[in-house]
């Protein structure tokens, strides 16, 4: 059989590129196409910052650095933000009230708000989702500072206290057909979504109510659970694709 090359067509733009191998017509989802584009462009030089004030930031750094051509940097201080040109930012799980307290005390809060306003991709997981939300219910007495930007109302600890933490496979169509294993630890839920918010995943809560557990709004991504605590890198790949597409 003559040696021919694969022809991969992006279903959205119709553009195509050759890959080594045989001419077989692959129709990829936009997500898969981006993935292959990123993989092909190994020289893509992306730096993703992970807010490291508190919480599960190390796990995000490790997960991000499994993506070819992507560097992750832990950010704590104003100087860290000033000394690193970052293309995207992850706000990890932990305790949103603590993060807000430290961010305010260290002068990082306004940098975070400026970064969100810049339009560069930002991903909040669990406490990070709360931090990114415009509104938070069940906030601490006296209220807690939020970065804002994601037009949602979240309910802190929606699924209960630590002892009610759970793991469950959920459907996240944007990642493909295979369910994603969600690790919910004193997790929030999104109760209201505003303009421009795309719902990516839902879950039935302990009261039988369907709540949103993952959403995207332009360059902002949020989820109630902890993808960094699973070996499944699809959520991190989705975020890397968002960052790559924004460059
Ligand atoms: N795992 C987590 O990030 C928990 C979030 C925490 N319950 C909060 O309200 O900030």
TrEMBL record:
Active site, renumbered: 126 (nucleophile), 226 (charge relay system), 228 (charge relay system)
Keyword Metal-binding carried by entry: no
Family: Belongs to the glutaminase PdxT/SNO family.
GO molecular function: glutaminase activity; lyase activity
Source organism, top-level taxon: Eukaryota
InterPro entries assigned to the protein according to its UniProt record, in alphabetical order: Class_I_gatase-like, PdxT/SNO, PdxT/SNO_CS
Family annotation (SUPFAM superfamilies): Class I glutamine amidotransferase-like (SSF52317)
Residues where L-glutamine binds: 94-96, 156, 185-186
Enzyme Commission number(s) from the entry: 3.5.1.2
Transmembrane annotation, as ranges: none
Protein name as it appears in the record: glutaminase
GO CC terms: cytosol; glutaminase complex
Keywords, ordered alphabetically: Glutamine amidotransferase, Hydrolase, Lyase, Pyridoxal phosphate
HAMAP family the record matches: PdxT
UniProt keyword Glycosyltransferase present: no
Catalytic activities: L-glutamine + H2O = L-glutamate + NH4(+)
A Pfam family it matches: SNO
GO biological process: pyridoxal phosphate biosynthetic process; pyridoxine metabolic process
Organism the protein comes from: Sphaeroforma arctica JP610
Catalytic EC class: hydrolase
């Amino acid at each position: 059989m003559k040696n021919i090359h694969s022809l991969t067509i992006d279903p959205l733009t119709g553009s195509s590129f050759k890959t080594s191998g045989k001419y077989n017509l692959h129709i990829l989802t936009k997500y898969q196409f981006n993935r292959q584009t990123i993989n092909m462009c190994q020289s893509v030089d992306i730096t993703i910052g992970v807010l490291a004030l508190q919480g599960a930031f190390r796990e995000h750094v490790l997960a991000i650095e499994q993506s070819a051509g992507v560097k992750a940097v832990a950010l704590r201080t104003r100087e860290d933000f000033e000394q690193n040109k970052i293309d995207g930012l992850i706000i990890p799980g932990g305790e949103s009230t603590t993060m807000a307290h430290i961010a305010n005390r260290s002068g990082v809060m306004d940098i975070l708000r400026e970064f969100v306003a810049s339009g560069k991709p930002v991903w909040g997981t669990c406490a990070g989702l709360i931090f990114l939300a415009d509104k938070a219910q069940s906030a601490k007495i006296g209220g807690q500072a939020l970065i804002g930007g994601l037009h949602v109302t979240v309910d802190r600890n929606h699924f209960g206290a630590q002892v009610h933490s759970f793991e469950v496979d959920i459907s996240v169509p944007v990642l493909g057909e295979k369910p994603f294993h969600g690790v919910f630890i004193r997790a929030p839920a999104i109760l209201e979504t505003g303009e421009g918010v795309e719902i990516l995943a839902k879950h039935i809560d302990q009261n039988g109510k369907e709540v949103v557990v993952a959403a995207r709004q332009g360059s902002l991504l949020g989820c109630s659970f902890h993808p960094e605590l699973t070996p499944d890198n699809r959520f991190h790949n989705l975020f890397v694709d968002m960052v790559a597409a924004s460059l």
